[in-house]
Amino acid sequence: MKNKKSIYPWWVFIATCLISIIGFGLLVNTIGLFFEPVSKSFGVGRASVSLMGTFQNAAAAITLLFAGKIMSKVNLRWLLTICFGIIAISMLSLTQAHSLIHFYVAWIIIGICQPIAITLSIPVLLGNWFNQKLGTVMGIALGLSAVGGTLFNPIIAGIITHHGWRMGYLAEGLLILLILVPTALFLQAKPNNKHLAYGEKTVNKQENIEHSGFTLGQAFKMPVFYAIALAMLVLQYVSGSVQHISGHIVNIGLPLTTGATVVSGLMLGAAAGKISIGYLLDRFNARIVLFFYSLFGAIGWFGQIFLNNGNLLIGSAFILGLGQGICLVALPYLIREEFGAKDYSNILSIINMLGAFAMSISVYVDGLLFDKTGSYNIGWWINAIAFIISFIALFLTLKTNKHQVSNPDSI
Questions:
Q1: Low-confidence ranges of the chain (pLDDT < 50)
Q2: Signal sequence: where (predicted)?
Q3: Could you give the angle at which helices 223-241 and 331-339 cross, rounded to 10 degrees?
Q4: Is 1 contained in some domain?
Q5: CB distance 143 to 205 below 8 Å
Q6: Residue 3 lies in a domain
Q7: Class of residue 155 by CB neighbours under 10 A (exposed 0-12, middle 13-18, buried 19+)
C-alpha cells in the first residue's frame, strides 16, 4: 500500500524540540541555581539541599525499570499530558515550601514523571517517526536542551537574585504548565496508515521496520549492551555534576551571575555538540566521532580544575559541553542502531535507569566532596576520567557496519 508523504513527522519533531527546550533546558539544567539560595534560606549544608536532586534521580531510575513498557502500552498523548501537568503542579508547590521535606517530596514526584515525559519521550517519538536522518533530528532536538539551558540559566538566575528562589520556581512551573501540557495534547505516538514515518512510502515497509531488531532478553547476551550501559552510567554521573558548576564558580570567588554565564557557555557547547554529533553519526564511523567528543569532554573538565578566569572558564565549559553530546544523543542513537526498533523503548529505558542512578549519586557525592574538602576539583577529575572509560568500552564493542542490525536468530 502506497501513501503520500506526511508532514506529521515534522510536527512531532517540533514538539520534541519544545519538550527539550523546556523539559531539559529549564527543569533539569537550572536546578543547581537553587542550591545556594535555598541552602542559605534554610541554614543547611549544600549536601542536604542537593539531596533533592539525588531523590529526583533515584525516583527516575526506579521508574525507568518499567517506563518503557508503560509507554508501549498506554496512550502516549494522555500519558505525557498527565506527567507534564504533575511536574508543573509540583514546581508551583515549591513556592510555598517551608522545609526541606517539601523539596524532597516534590522532586521525588517530578523524578517519577521525568523519565516518561522528558528522558524517553524525545528519542522514542523520533525513533518512531524518523527511519531516515534519525541522528540529525535527534541531535537537533536534544541539542535544543542546551539552547534552553543557555537561555534560561541567566533568566532564572536573575529572577532568583532580584525576587528570590520562590519566584524562580513560579516562573518554571508556569512555563511547563502553559507550553508543554498543550504540546502533549496534540501528539501522536506512532505512524499509521494516514501518517507514515519519514523515509517510508509504504505501510508494509513501515511495519517491517517496527518489528525488526532485538528484544531486551536478546540484547542482554550482547557485549555492546554492557558497553553502552557502562557509558551511560559514567556519563550520566558526569551530567549530575553539571548542577554544581555554578556553585564551583561562586566558590572560587566569582559572582553567581558569572556562574550562570559559565553554565550557559556549557549549554551552548552542549547544543553544538548534540547537534553536530547527530549529524556526524549519520555520516561517519561512530568510533571516530566518539573519540573526538570524548576528548572534548575530558579537556573541558580539566579546564574547570585549573582555570580561574571567568572568560577562560566559559570557554572551558563550552568545550566540555561538546562532550555532553555523547550521553544524550550518541547513546540513544547507538541503541537504535545496534538493537533496532523492536524493543527500543524498553532497552533504552533500562540503560537510562543505570544512568539515572549514577546521576542521583553524583549530585550528592559532589556536594559531599565539597562539604568535606571545600572544593569540587576531585569531582571534576572523576568526570574527565569517565569520558576516557566510556570511549574505551564503546570502541571495543561497537559493530563496524553502520545502519545494519544483526539477525537476532544468530545469537
A1: 1-3, 410-411
A2: none
A3: 170
A4: no
A5: no
A6: no
A7: middle
The x, y and z cell numbers of residue 14, run together, are: 517540533
Among 237, 323, 314, 231, residue whose Cα is nearest residue 273: 323
The whole domain housing 342 covers: 8-402
Look-up of cell digits 563496524: 400
For residues 399 and 285, the answer to whether their CB atoms sit within 8 Å is no
CATH of the domain at 258: 1.20.1250.20
Beta-carbon contacts of 58 under 8 Å, excluding residues fewer than 6 positions away, are 108, 111, 356, 357, 360
Whole-model pTM: value is 0.75
Give dist(CA 193, CA 404) in Å, integer.
Answer: 26
Number of domains comprising the chain: 1
**Residue 407, in any domain of the structure:** no
- Residue 187: inside a domain: yes
Q: Which pLDDT tens digit goes with each residue over 39-50?
A: 888 888 877 888
| Rg of the chain over all Cα atoms, to the nearest angstrom | 20
Three cell numbers, residue 192: 499509521
CA distances from residue 298 to 318, 319, 398 in whole angstroms, order as listed:
12, 9, 21
